[in-house]
Amino acid sequence: MLSKKLEEALNAQINAEFWSAYLYLSMSADCASKGYGGMANWFNVQFKEEQDHAMKIFNFVISRGGKVNLRPIDKVTQSWKSPLAAFKDTLKHEIVVTKMINDLYALATEEKDYATQSMLQWFVDEQVEEEETAQAYIDALTMIGENGFGIYQFDKELATRTYTPLTTTEA
Ligand code: FEO
Q1: Structural domains of the chain ordered from first start
Q2: Residues lining ligand 1, judged by CB closer than 6 Å?
Q3: Is 0.70 surpassed by the pTM of this model?
């Protein structure tokens, strides 16, 4: 059985993951409106993955006999001045999420809730990848600068990303 404190914290994380999904969907819409179809695709896949993250915790709370309480999702930014600005915001946001996951893990450790620690381990590993990817794209876009052909190539590369749902054992 989940403690009330942990149940509350996991519910907050479900909201944060849905907010992340909403943020990336907004970035996808912004990229699409500016003709960056590849980046729009990349952020759309990111949007779907964030929903999976939310649902992973959602399912966990239920399987532990807890109660999911969905909260309002805060508004998100609608427009970014450049692809680089969007990826900088992505990294900034993922660093915040990493801190939230770490705090949750610390709480689960304090409460000796090993099942929650085990579930959160997946997120600890996922956050390393999330930050690494955002940083790699910031580096690439910084290198590209104002080079139109570079942006075109970068956008083409991000068009290749496909969505893979979490498997039933991971979800
Ligand atoms: Fe759910 Fe991007 O971390």
Answers
A1: 4-70+77-158 (1.20.1260.10)
A2: 17, 20, 50, 53, 94, 97, 130
A3: yes
Q: How confident is the model at residue 1 (pLDDT cuts 50, 70, 90)?
A: confident
Tell me what pLDDT residue 90 has. Answer: 98
147 CA to centre of ligand 1 in angstroms: 30
In ligand 1, which atom is closest to the CA atom of 130?
2
Q: Which atom of ligand 1 is nearest to the CA of 54?
A: 1
User: Which ligand 1 atom is nearest residue 50's CA?
Assistant: 1
- What is the residue-wise DSSP string for 48-109? HHHHHHHHHHHHHHHHTT------PPPP-----SSHHHHHHHHHHHHHHHHHHHHHHHHHHH
